[in-house]
Amino acid sequence: MDEPIFDIAHLGHVELLTDKPDESLDFFTRVLGLSESGREGESVFLRAFDDYEFHTLKLTAAPTTGMRHVGYRATSPQALARRVAAIEAMGCGLGWSDGDLGHGPAYRFHDPDGHVFEIYYETRRYVPPPEEKPALKNQAQRVPNRVIAPRRLDHLNLLATDVAAIRDFVPKALGSRVTEQIVLDDGTVGGCWFTVNNKSYDVAYTRDATGARGRFHHVTYAVDQREHILQAADVFLENGVHIETGPHKHAVQQTFFLYVWEPAGNRVELANAGARLILAPDWQTVTWTQTERMKGQAWGLKTIESFHTHGTPPA
Amino acid sequence: MDEPIFDIAHLGHVELLTDKPDESLDFFTRVLGLSESGREGESVFLRAFDDYEFHTLKLTAAPTTGMRHVGYRATSPQALARRVAAIEAMGCGLGWSDGDLGHGPAYRFHDPDGHVFEIYYETRRYVPPPEEKPALKNQAQRVPNRVIAPRRLDHLNLLATDVAAIRDFVPKALGSRVTEQIVLDDGTVGGCWFTVNNKSYDVAYTRDATGARGRFHHVTYAVDQREHILQAADVFLENGVHIETGPHKHAVQQTFFLYVWEPAGNRVELANAGARLILAPDWQTVTWTQTERMKGQAWGLKTIESFHTHGTPPA
Amino acid sequence: MDEPIFDIAHLGHVELLTDKPDESLDFFTRVLGLSESGREGESVFLRAFDDYEFHTLKLTAAPTTGMRHVGYRATSPQALARRVAAIEAMGCGLGWSDGDLGHGPAYRFHDPDGHVFEIYYETRRYVPPPEEKPALKNQAQRVPNRVIAPRRLDHLNLLATDVAAIRDFVPKALGSRVTEQIVLDDGTVGGCWFTVNNKSYDVAYTRDATGARGRFHHVTYAVDQREHILQAADVFLENGVHIETGPHKHAVQQTFFLYVWEPAGNRVELANAGARLILAPDWQTVTWTQTERMKGQAWGLKTIESFHTHGTPPA
Amino acid sequence: MDEPIFDIAHLGHVELLTDKPDESLDFFTRVLGLSESGREGESVFLRAFDDYEFHTLKLTAAPTTGMRHVGYRATSPQALARRVAAIEAMGCGLGWSDGDLGHGPAYRFHDPDGHVFEIYYETRRYVPPPEEKPALKNQAQRVPNRVIAPRRLDHLNLLATDVAAIRDFVPKALGSRVTEQIVLDDGTVGGCWFTVNNKSYDVAYTRDATGARGRFHHVTYAVDQREHILQAADVFLENGVHIETGPHKHAVQQTFFLYVWEPAGNRVELANAGARLILAPDWQTVTWTQTERMKGQAWGLKTIESFHTHGTPPA
């Protein structure tokens, strides 16, 4: 029996593109409660209050929207080298980059749908300035005095034309496990959830009904309690943010969720997973059927139509 | 640089002794919301609704109280073999046991304070009978219709005369990381928190002021939300359970907690960690000073005196 | 300026009919967490743990479903006499009844849509048997050890063909205030919320699109926290209860809600109003337009179609 | 049987004195989440986001701390006249004032311990400027985007040398009911809770152990959920606010509470009462004995010593 792979530690950051940079930045900081830790070129580096790295969201002004790349941090330099070797052997490597404000050298590759990933080990820890020193030293930064103040980056969701191909690819590239999936009646894979650690997922893929390639579905930040998501809904309402669906509980992965669109159209989720973790080293993939998915979310909410069609950039 | 060790997947179970077996069982099932999955000899096997294994608590009738052993599950057979070799080399091995109702062969060893550990890979997954089948298939069992219904085993806390020795021992034996510790003004280690995975800790050790060896401090089950702990406090109150301290938030590890004593005197905690996880593969141990600890818990609650003296069995 | 009327203290009880008495009783006790305080004839008397009266729900076996009557308690014998005189003058009185297990003499009348009301002063306080004595003496009964354990009866909702007529009637009969209302573009009243005390409403009326008369929409029990409603949703899911809509927050009255159907088809709501109260003695009715209502609930959930059509008995 | 009195609608406002006006104002706005609605002379007028009146807290710079006066709103002009007549007959009247920025003419009187009360009917409703217009029109103001954002003023607590005298006085003056009280073994009244409406209390008195007269114990704002109080504790911690005790649940009145001291030393509470209301028009006073009170708060927290000694101004 092959041993599980522990080469990748966690999802590190997502680079999002926005064609409304000022409004997007206002949303992510004033409304969503992220903090700015730096700027470089067209990009602003953002993080949640307990993200230990310099940034988990790189917001980049661009002529369009969507995701430019996603970064994962390796568990050690040796682990990084093993992954690079494996990925090069898979033939999808793009080579090394020098990194940026937030981390050191990163090896880039693309998934079968064209999304760009990078893996790195050397990182820059966030060091709070005096006014951001937290009262409790086991926390990266003070809790912002805003209703919405997510603790950390949680996961992202990408669209792909062939999710079955992705299901083969991601475990090979990152050493991820497939924790849950949706297999439709015609045998195609409707969605797939992956994790490299004890979180129930760090990336999910769902089928892009439009046939477009390389699109982005959403990025998710985690809050500590479900009640915080209910409070967040009021803040979104008061600030004129488009609430797409929720709050409700997903049947898949059981996450309590709320989806909104930031001003440029990128979808953002707040989520709480309760105490649910994937601890079993031999976790058996949970497979949902088409019939089961038609029941809607956990408590019966029907999946909103735009959830299947809206991605960024627009198709 | 040495790579981190990923040989142990998670804390598996704790065997607690009780000299009031009927009352203890009533507490753990009717009040604390655990379910019985089997019995053998003097032991009843219990679990929380989303524990994937057959049991996480083995409750054994005995002339005394305290912990008989704690079990950890390895990430693979190969990983188990590596740990056994390492532990044998450390000279603290006790040899193999056949396992019990809940798991296969286990290798036993003792820590420097005399607590017995076992590590195993082969396990028995809980298979719910029809009336316990959950509505959502990604969950081990139905949610019990009780106010207190913890999701899973979280961690345990042991007392030791020499916590510094333990701080050296546990990472070597299990591959754990030290996430937080208390170092007193005289240089002695007052407490130490360890993890083998992304949880902030799965075992903690604190100094036994009585000088006794091998004693048990508490076992903790995790609930999904802090509000569930507030509700639990009412249930304990209505059922005449001794509430020792809480609900409040720990400064160390920031866990929201509530401590009670089950009828035989073993301490039990309910806890919620919010979305806090240890994701950094190179997490830097947080060290609390004596002065910092004298501030009490996060919001100022003073540590109750019995917390330093009450362990099982009585000293 | 006329003074406000304080003759009616609060909503007292609702008598619901069920053609599936065993299943309905199982739902209201085992699932919804009400307690039985007595039986008489075809009726079982039920209450929430902090309802101070003998019952707040009278569940009566019958060939059909719906509401047989609703009871309000007066603030004094004198106040009761004033209301009776006023109602008799309005020409809708039905005369006195002897009361039942739960209260003394009651004066009955009907609203313009044919629903039967009664008002009474003499009541029977719930006296807990020893095993139901609460730990805190300022509470009527122990908190049941069930996930769903509402604190008290909150309000009911009735269907009516002419809500404008109701809007005139209820304040005259009970001394209620109209706290909120929906006025459609054609000038008809789509819904109306009334209160006799500081609660934001104790009865609401909405238009019966079917043209039937005297129908029942739902009865609501209040829980202490919004999180309790999220937990309740899981219990309903695990027990196969039809969840109609929610959890979500109403725009009207801002109540956090969850609607289910009990086995016989009567709609039941769990709700939490937070700290919202109507304290102003001269509260100004809030009027919602058709356009505003088309935005859906507070966070955008569209009102489910069955909410407009499903009432009991079936039309 | 005398009818209950409904002449007073609700607690209206509290005027607090501070000898650190800038720091106190910063606390009440930036930390506690109140909004400023006006200034006059040495006073700043503050309110919670769903307080319907112009102000509920009048913060006045002064050489000392404590409460200058408390205001209650009558249910009608006629009711106000009845109360004034009753109070004048009691011999404790102080005469009419012209009111201030927030309300019209008020009749002033003092309680037996020297605290100054006023009652008024004419009030000034808060009218939000455009940027404070709430998304939901049944709310006074937008929810502030701060972690702590109480919904409304809840109650106050005053110290008195002779609480038994107060217990006689308040119902006569305001028409209040005594919902709970503490009667010590020597027959003296240790504490007394009063309400004029369905809230479980709007003013409480506890014995001033120092023998001083006319002192202030605390003012309380209500938040919607208990979880909001847990979040508030973190904000107080991060902002260096002195947390005196809590969060915990009171045995008396069952309120979930958190006490802090604002910079000038006045005690402030955040509280949540869940769905608990006093609906019975003939509520029977709950009397706690000395023995019962020695058990501490609901879940066992001992009452902190400063709670018995710290009042403002200092004794």
Automatic annotation (TrEMBL), chains A, B, C, D:
<keyword id="KW-0223">Dioxygenase</keyword>
<dbReference type="GO" id="GO:0018577">
    <property type="term" value="F:catechol 2,3-dioxygenase activity"/>
</dbReference>
<protein>
    <submittedName>
        <fullName>Catechol 2,3-dioxygenase</fullName>
    </submittedName>
</protein>
<dbReference type="InterPro" id="IPR004360">
    <property type="entry name" value="Glyas_Fos-R_dOase_dom"/>
</dbReference>
<dbReference type="InterPro" id="IPR029068">
    <property type="entry name" value="Glyas_Bleomycin-R_OHBP_Dase"/>
</dbReference>
<dbReference type="InterPro" id="IPR050383">
    <property type="entry name" value="GlyoxalaseI/FosfomycinResist"/>
</dbReference>
<dbReference type="GO" id="GO:0008198">
    <property type="term" value="F:ferrous iron binding"/>
</dbReference>
<feature type="domain" description="VOC">
    <location>
        <begin position="152"/>
        <end position="273"/>
    </location>
</feature>
<dbReference type="Pfam" id="PF00903">
    <property type="entry name" value="Glyoxalase"/>
</dbReference>
<keyword id="KW-0677">Repeat</keyword>
<dbReference type="InterPro" id="IPR017624">
    <property type="entry name" value="Catechol_2-3_dOase"/>
</dbReference>
<dbReference type="InterPro" id="IPR037523">
    <property type="entry name" value="VOC_core"/>
</dbReference>
<keyword id="KW-0560">Oxidoreductase</keyword>
<feature type="domain" description="VOC">
    <location>
        <begin position="10"/>
        <end position="122"/>
    </location>
</feature>
